[in-house]
Design a protein that fits this description.
There is one protein chain. With 271 residues, this protein is α/β, with parallel strands linked by helices. The protein is 45% helix and 17% strand. It has an eight-stranded parallel β-barrel, surrounded by seven helices. It starts with a helix and ends with a helix. This is LLM class F420-dependent oxidoreductase.
């Protein structure tokens, strides 16, 4: 990292990390469990699932499993890798209950949980499970109300979390979402090419400036899907992304691209 980068993008001081979203769809749980174990063995930094009730691609009524009960199982099935949802839907659980669930998985995992959270968007989940879908603005307002409640509940619980649980907020809305990131998050997760991500970083930096927070406190994460590090790694690295999240779906979780990203991480970090 150059002196210019450390001044303009203080979050570029983070080492590169690799996340792997194991989409819990179209696979038996035994295959999902095997995949998270293999990902840990490969050397991934974070294993993510997602918080939905139905597949997002392929057969709409295909095999699918619930997020948080799975994370508790992963906490026992893994030893080193951090775990979390990419991302929890705020609408699906009372904020204080979610805080307690997160604290419990934090203890089960011996301090390896990341609380990934967002406002929610998949309308079928809401309709089928009886939640009010409302509006995008209303869901973001609800997220803004929930985050302080989660933080307050963590302070009251006995025992308390094993650490200050990192909060990851996903989403790119510039007026509300990125403001919430500046106020509450340790990690921001976004989508898009390097130009788009650079713009979102600048907006987030301005929100940080407004509230007096150091933007270098917020690690920057980008979804890379099934793209290779040769295709997008350097361009995203150059704009300050340090957490790169690969994703794969069942029934056959392809780990080839993940291996390439882990090797690229080690090369960039000088390991």
């Amino acid at each position: 990292m150059t002196d210019s980068e450390s001044t303009e993008r203080p979050y570029a001081a983070y080492p590169v990390r690799i996340g792997f979203q194991i989409q819990p769809q179209h696979a038996e749980y035994a295959d999902i469990r095997r995949t998270v174990a293999q990902a840990e063995e490969i050397g991934v930094d974070i294993a993510f699932n997602w918080d939905h009730f139905y597949p997002l691609s392929g057969e709409p009524d295909g095999l699918h499993f619930e997020c948080w009960t799975m994370l508790a199982a992963w906490a026992e099935a893994t030893e080193r890798v951090e775990i979390g949802a990419l991302v929890t839907c705020n609408s699906y659980r009372n904020a204080d209950l979610l805080a307690d669930m997160a604290r419990t998985v934090d203890h089960i995992s011996d301090g390896r949980l990341i609380l990934g959270i967002g406002s929610g968007w998949f309308e079928r989940d809401y309709d089928e499970y009886g939640y009010e879908f409302g509006t995008a603005g209303g869901r973001l307002n609800a997220l803004g109300e929930a985050l302080p409640r989660i933080e307050a509940r963590w302070a009251k619980l006995n025992p308390k979390p094993t650490r200050d649980i990192p909060v990851l907020i996903g989403g790119g809305g510039e007026k509300k979402t990125l403001k919430l990131v500046a106020q509450h998050a340790n990690i921001w997760h976004g989508f898009g090419d390097a130009e788009t991500i650079a713009h979102k970083h600048a907006v987030l930096d301005e929100h940080c400036k407004t509230i007096g927070r150091d933007p270098g406190e917020i690690e920057r994460s980008t979804a890379v899907g099934d793209k290779s590090p040769d295709a997008v790694g350097k361009s995203l690295l150059d704009v300050g992304t340090r957490l790169f999240t690969v994703s794969a779906s069942g029934p056959d979780y392809d780990l080839g691209q993940l291996r390439d990203w882990v090797a690229w991480r080690d090369e960039v970090n000088g390991k």
